[in-house]
Amino acid sequence: MGVAVLCFDQEGCMGCVEQSPINRQVEKALHIEIQEIDAVKNPRFVSQYHLHVTPTIVILKNGKEMKRFEGLVHREELEAALKEYL
Question: Which of 7, 14, 20, 32 has the least CB density, counted as fewest CB within 10 Å?
Answer without folding.
Answer: 14
